[in-house]
Design goal:
The protein has one helix and nine strands. The strands form two sheets. Strands 1, 2, 4, 7 and 9 form a five-stranded antiparallel beta sheet that branches. A four-stranded antiparallel beta sheet has the order 3-8-5-6, with no helix packed on it. 25% of the residues are buried. It has a single domain (28-156), classed as Jelly Rolls, CATH 2.60.120.1340. With 169 residues, the chain is mainly beta. The longest helix is centred in the first third of the chain and has 23 residues, at 3-25. The protein is 14% helix and 49% strand.
């Protein structure tokens, strides 16, 4: 093997190592889930998982998630309230910054679109699951039918600012 061939191979290996290293250091990705399967929201004590996505990140990663759902009016009584939220836990507390609500009355609006956006991070290295969730506000509310819903998210290690309360962990 001549010197020129050896130098070319070393150069190629060096370039490949740099490229592989850049991929390992960069922590940028997108994900999401969606379904048109009807899901019944039947509890005021436990969240119903509409969709969820599990992913792994490196240190300092921040994720932004958006959830959207179509909720059908159960047409049974008035003041029926339901909560929707994005969370890293399957059964978080209530009244988070990312929680949204919808209220239905008998013979009122037939369908409501509910959506929320959340910022999670910066996240420590590890595996996480973002959940798009729903639950009743009160036990006496009739079950809610969610006809279709979706959740998308983007994760990046590049933060635009370090807002102290931007995380939603």
């Amino acid at each position: 093997m001549n010197r020129k061939t050896r130098v070319s191979r070393y150069a190629l290996v060096s370039v490949l190592c740099c490229l592989c290293g850049a991929v390992a250091w960069a922590d940028i990705g997108v994900g999401g889930r969606a379904t048109t399967v009807d899901i019944s929201v039947n509890s005021d004590m436990m969240w119903t998982i509409l969709v969820a996505e599990t992913f792994t990140v490196a240190d300092g990663t921040t994720c932004i998630a958006t959830g959207s759902a179509d909720a059908l009016n159960p047409n049974a009584g008035n003041n029926n309230q339901y909560r929707f939220t994005l969370a890293l836990m399957a059964n978080p507390g209530t009244n988070s910054r990312f929680e949204r609500s919808v209220e239905f009355d008998m013979n009122g609006v037939g369908k409501e679109e509910v959506s929320s956006t959340a910022v999670f991070g910066p996240l420590e290295p590890g595996t996480y699951t973002i959940h798009w969730l729903a639950r009743k506000v009160a036990a006496g509310a009739p079950n809610l039918n969610v006809t279709d819903n979706s959740m998308t998210f983007v994760c990046s290690d590049d933060r635009l600012h370090d807002e102290a309360d931007a995380g939603g962990n």
